[in-house]
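Table S4 entry, acylphosphatase.
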Amino acid sequence: MSRAILQVMIRGRVQGVGYRAWVEYQATASGLEGWVRNRRDGSVEAVFAGAPKHVADMVALCRHGPPSARVDSVTSETAAADELNLRRAGEAFSVLPTV
């Protein structure tokens, strides 16, 4: 089975609206591995790893976000497997501190 790993940047009104918790819930429900975190520039960054269709579906969901968010742009690029090392030990998907 093939596996995709994408790093995603989401810009817009995506902080202070529950975006990270929403991403964590959606990714976990889809069986994805990875992490999500706020960035000081006001964006949200995430890494998703899993079946290519599930990763693509998650990126599509990020274009809308939770009801209180306003997503202006979503960009994604292929990421290396070592990006997953940022997760907390024992977690398949982590919410990380702001960088």
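The chain has one domain: 4-80.
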